[in-house]
Amino acid sequence: MKLYLLAPEGDVDEPRGLMEQGGYRCEVIQSAQQLPIHDQRNGLLTVICFSEDDLLECHHPAMVPILFSQQPLNVAKMLLALSHGAVDCWSAEMASQDLVKRGEALVARLQRTHAVSHQVAQNAEAAARLSDLEQELQDDQRAGQQIQLGMLPSQHKQMDEFLFSRWVQPSLMLSGDFVDYFPLQDHYLACFLADVAGHGASSALLTVMLKNISWRLQQKFGLPQFKSPGDMLGWINDTLIGQGIEKHVAMFLGIIDKQTNVLHYSMAAHYPPGLMLSQAGDVTALQQSAKPLGLFPNAVYTSDQVDFPLGSTLLVFSDGVMDCLAPTDFDEKEAALQQLAISLGEPVKLWSRLCESLKKLDDVSLLAVKHERRA
Fold first, then answer.
1. 78-84 long-range CB contacts below 8 Å, 24 or more apart?
2. 8 Å CB contact between 338 and 164
3. Stated pTM of the model
4. What is the pLDDT of residues 122-144, one digit of tens each?
5. CATH of 141-371, one of 3.40.50.740, 3.40.50.300, 3.30.930.10, 3.60.40.10
6. Burial category of 248 from C-beta neighbours within 10 Å (exposed 0-12, middle 13-18, buried 19 and up)
7. Do the beta carbons of residue 127 and residue 40 sit within 8 Å?
């Protein structure tokens, strides 16, 4: 049996050794987004988490999160872990042979609980029938997925008093959603979420160009035609049209002035509206009407601004998030998303809740920026 050890800090030599003594094959990962959830040969993926917060990263139907505690387990700790999505709790006190028995029982219980035994058998049979060409294509897509993950900015990146986080869950192996954030000169921080139309390799290839655009924006910002996010979107639009890219892109682009704590933003056909959540729980929807990027030459994009005081959080979603919400009417979906953001507060909890309703109809992404006082 294979286990994935979710260890953002990477220091898990002792528990890894214990589990390998118990007969497990272990692979250490720093983010749940590294898990091969789209590879049907893997079936359910057992993920060992070492903190209750890490469990929140693993709310996906293909993931089986388990809390591994270095300390003795008590009722309060186990209840908290279960409330965060854990299906079981292990501790370092258990002998390796007991872990083997618990692992076997866990697999059997999971198969009954999730009623997946028949599906797992079908997946195994389908994997066995894959042709060499199909397997090569899947391997290429896996390599492409790793390249895409490598282009994303580091998770939970602190820049001055602002903490930047991102989550991207593709509907297929490759994603048409892309998130980036980076400093601009000395006084500004930039962030954007882009949603390329369509799915698959052609949309994913355009995200490579978007990463290149990030680098070029850092070099050009402050020049006469690059003084506002609207100017920057206009340049991106002209760049995409000039390249003959037959894809259109929706985008939210924000520039934070660190001296005034103001967010300047512009949008290109972006939906749903971004949300500015105050420390008191009030929410402001950031809305604009504008054309998508890559279709209309010389399109003009406006810039707006909103205060970004200490304790506030910016939340920006791709439109795939709407499929994760129960209401059928779009206005009701927007209201439900705002209420969910207010009630949960923390971006990681919001992402975890959204992942519980994933339907794989579209890529789903979240960009979060929290203004917090540095320790």
1. 80/52, 81/52, 81/55, 84/52, 84/53, 84/55, 84/56, 84/352
2. no
3. 0.68
4. 554 555 555 555 555 556 556 55
5. 3.60.40.10
6. buried
7. yes
